[in-house]
Amino acid sequence: MFVDTISSHGVGHSDLGTYKGAAHVNCDLKTNDDPDHEIKSLAGSYYPSYLAYSSVSGAVAKYEEALALGRNVAHVVTEMDSWIQHQKTDSSWDDITQDFTDDYKSWTETSTAQSNEWTSMTTYEFTDVAVNSQAGSKTASQTPLSDYLNAAVTLAKTDATYHESAKEMIEKTMLDAVGFHGALNLLNRAQDDASSPPRCVNGQRLPQQSADWDTAAALIIGDGYHSVLGRAQKRGVEFDTMGTAHTAKTYEKIVKYLRFGQEEKNCDKLHDIYEGIEKQLRIVYSQCVVKYAYKIDAAIKAGTASTYGDDQSEGQALYRVIAGDVKRKGTNTAYADAYQFFDTLFDVRATPSRGSWDFANYCKAIENLKGIFSISDSDFGHYHKAYHVHCESKKVYDSSSYAALVHEVYSTQAGMSKTETRTAEALAALSFVIAVAGVVVGSIALHKVRKTGATAFKNSYVVHNV
Questions:
Q1: Cβ distance 408 to 422 under 8 Å?
Q2: Tens digit of pLDDT for each residue in 303-354?
Q3: 105, 200, 298, 350: which has the highest count of C-beta atoms within 10 A?
Q4: Percentage helix, strand, coil, to 5, in the chain?
Q5: Which of 391, 421, 394 is nearest to 408 (CA)?
Q6: pLDDT tens digit sequence for 33-54
Q7: Cβ of 335: how many Cβ atoms within 10 Å?
């Protein structure tokens, strides 16, 4: 630097000062906390390392595309809602396939930046959802996301009764599958020191490594709502797995790991950080799967067969996000049948079957996912609508109040008094109310500082979907 040389004639750092337009640039740390590049989240901000990879061709543009994913999905979902409202079965639905081809395929099927886990994440046999397919029929493809979206679009154009199911299948493919698979693919590449050329040499990171890590962060965080972290927040509320008053534990941990990974130059440690993010993401989508397993069991118990379609289609679309992991990690374990179990449960061409008791499918889903991914009880939480279901005793408690339910369970198993259980119930209820209020207030507050458009729509989305 000029001020450190003899040519400066004694001019020091304090004499030179800092240019006000570059106040966010730290030359020693090589960071650029430019507020224009800031990604806001409920767990704090994330700044991309622009200075570290500005020389990498196309890296900055790719990062901006990743950041736009959530906004694009929000617009597509709004379009679909409009078409459903007007009962359209015409070519309007084909726009969805085109959107995927143009915007999202590059993160998945046509990506040239593929990690060593890419195939196991995205290429697997799955239940066929084509209009003329039979229940239980399978399809294996190198382009599973495109095939799935094409089938969903055909389904929507065939009959208006499939509109809502198709919408859920499309939305959760573009948002969840693309965000999850695309981000893990990039994070895997960023920490892989076995690649050619290696990405961590003598404690130094290559510019491409920083670019991959930041782009993955943009995919995960997105606009905060139509994103993987948005899904984590909703599940945190529904499973009572909240960290602070307004942020899900998985959400907080993922943001923390993303920041740690930005600064880590040791590939062994970076690998541990990557695995930490991967585990938290699997918790989020395991919770998603369990939610719809419960809804299917509840529909079977109530005899409301008309709800099967939407529950199965949403469950299937979310299960597809982790299906490859379930199949790979469950092989040669006590959970080897888990892949087939979920495949059958979410087969939209068949009526789901009741298990050995009312909520056998729900409890089997929990057992499989916690076992395969080694998720603890505290990390997994408990789906709030299933508070009356006790998997170990295989009982459904139909008490008149939550307090009475807690007493009924604990008086049988732990000898708690009714006074103690009422206190516990009151604290649990208060905790849940505070969590929900925190999500709504925090979400709205976050959007008030955003400069992007459609704020009113997004606020409404948050309020109506927690």
A1: no
A2: 876 556 788 999 999 999 999 899 989 988 999 999 999 999 998 888 888 8
A3: 200
A4: 65, 5, 30
A5: 421
A6: 555 667 888 888 888 887 778 8
A7: 19
